[in-house]
Design a protein that fits this description.
Strand 4 and strand 5 form a beta hairpin. The mean pLDDT is 95. The termini are close together. The chain has 2 domains: 94 residues, Alpha-Beta Plaits (2-Layer Sandwich), CATH 3.30.70; 52 residues, no CATH class. The strands form 3 sheets. A 4-stranded antiparallel beta sheet has the order 2-7-1-8. The chain has a two-stranded antiparallel ribbon with strand order 3-6. The protein has a two-stranded antiparallel ribbon with strand order 4-5. By secondary structure, it is of the alpha+beta class. The protein is built from 3 helices and 8 strands.
């Protein structure tokens, strides 16, 4: 059976905190929600935080058109090579508008982040409470990315 992971990431891909603040927030999460494990990870550069194999469709936030996944994958490869995901702007093939890849409408939420709190096998809908706690604690909105692996 697949394990459920709820990943909590700030909506600002380059947002980082000091190690002590991250660990204190993880401890606060452990007091708030029940999960088999709660971890925190921080990287120097933004990484793509995905929903596992559930990513089947991505839509343009400007016109709503479904994006070709091969096109998206090629742009992702180029963005990583050129800027390690620090620059996420791209012109959409559907409408010609410039869009930040962090704002694409991933049918199962995904995003980019340097900071990630992960709840492994949380009980119920703990992700919303946890995201609210982190948003309040750090003063930046957090979103949930749920994956089954």
């Amino acid at each position: 059976m697949a394990e459920r992971f709820v990943k909590l990431i700030p909506c600002l891909p380059t947002y980082r905190v000091n190690v002590k603040a991250a660990e204190q927030a993880a401890e606060a999460l452990r007091r708030l929600v029940r999960a088999e494990e709660i971890t925190v990870r921080q990287t120097e550069r933004p990484e793509f935080v995905d929903c596992g194999g559930a990513l089947t469709e991505i839509r343009c936030p400007k016109c709503g058109a479904a994006l070709d996944l091969d096109w998206w994958g090629g742009v992702m490869d180029r963005m990583y090579r050129e800027s390690h995901f620090f620059l996420l702007e791209e012109t959409m093939p559907c409408c010609g508008k410039t869009v930040n890849f962090n704002n694409l409408r991933y049918v199962r939420p995904c995003g980019f982040s340097c900071l990630e709190f992960t709840l492994r096998e949380p009980e119920g809908e703990a992700g919303k409470e946890a995201a609210d706690l982190l948003s309040e604690r750090f003063g930046v909105l957090f979103r949930q990315v749920e994956a089954r692996v």
